[in-house]
Amino acid sequence: MAAQNGKDLLIKLDMTGAGQFETIAGLRATRISFNTESVDVTSLESSGGWRELLGGAGVKSASISGSGVFKDENTDERARQIFFDGEVPHFQVIIPDFGTVEGAFQLTSIEYAGSHNGEATYELSMSSAGELTFTAV
User: Fold this and answer.
1) Please, are residues 91 and 103 in contact by the beta-carbon 8 Å criterion?
2) Which of 11, 28, 55, 100 could form a disulfide with 68 if both were Cys (CB 3.0 to 4.6 A apart)?
3) Which residue, among 41, 120, 3, 27, has the nearest Cα to 79 in the 3D structure?
């Protein structure tokens, strides 16, 4: 696979609850992380004393984070609404030349910052809140 442009990793938010996804504006950096808990089934009978893990078990999760500058009132306002209303809307993450991950995420953190001679910035963190789907390119 050839190198990819980082700006093509997009986080999209369902603006209406009806599948109308829009890119969260102003993001400069984005990241998605997939995790699974391991289930240790090691016993005295484990070969050579090596740890054994139970395949297909454990809780799966994903987290999304992004940071950027304020640029678009609609997506900024929607993100604030989601956080303060405790909503768990659907998001899409477009991973270039890989595919699209979609599902419900909870907005777990919003941070705002700014300096007197610079732009106002924000950071978002989200945690998966249900089953995710993956659609390959």
Assistant:
1) yes
2) 28
3) 27
CATH value of 6-136 in 3.30.2400, 2.30.30, 3.10.20, 2.30.110: 2.30.110
Count the Cβ atoms, other than its own, within 10 Å of residue 35.
11
Which two structure tokens, joined as six digits, stand for 35?
Answer: 């995790």
Write out pLDDT tens, residues 51-79. 999 998 899 999 999 998 877 678 888 88
**Tokens, residue 94:** 């477009």
Q: Work out the end-to-end distance of the chain between its first and last CA atoms, rounded to an integer number of angstroms.
A: 13
Find out whether 48 and 87 touch, Cβ atoms under 8 Å: no
3-state DSSP assignment of residue 58: coil
